[in-house]
Amino acid sequence: MVNPTPTPLSLEERNVLLDYGNWRMNGLRCSLDPLRREANVTALTDDKALMMISCEAGAYNTIDLAWIVSRKKPLASRPVRLRLPFNNGQETNELELMNATFDEKSRELVTLAKGRGLSDCGISGALAL
Predict the structure, then answer these.
(1) 6 part of a folded domain
(2) For a designed S-S bond to 93, which of 56, 65, 70, 84 qualifies (C-beta 3.0 to 4.6 A apart)?
């Protein structure tokens, strides 16, 4: 049975996961300056954590990369992917994680791709974790 309120990450555990995230990012091509990248980790279960790192940035949007990471060594991860249940005429039905946030209360990963400007248009999606 999955604990609906996982044990919070300890400071040591958080630091190990953030170090892992920095190592993970070294092999990826991201245009965002490493000093401007934001990394967040949060407990999903007692065994897994969600790690999100900002990778690209524009006027209104930040593209994030996310992984489900084991909380115990040896650390292992798999990317989080949001896929539409239909083809919307694009090459792929996969959505980028834009301005991603994780709501710990609802346990949802939320993404919001803003259109041309604030309060204009956009696409929002949520994934229950």
Answers:
(1) no
(2) 84
Count of domains for the chain: 1
Is residue 45 a part of any domain in this protein?
A: yes
What is this structure's pTM? 0.83
From 74, 76, 78, 94, select the one nearest 86 (Cα to Cα): 94
CA–CA distances in Å: residue 127 to residues 13, 70, 83: 25, 19, 10
Angle at 73 (CA atoms; ends 70, 75), nearest 5 degrees: 45
Per-10-residue mean pLDDT for the chain, 129 residues long?
A: 79 95 80 84 96 89 94 93 75 83 90 76 74
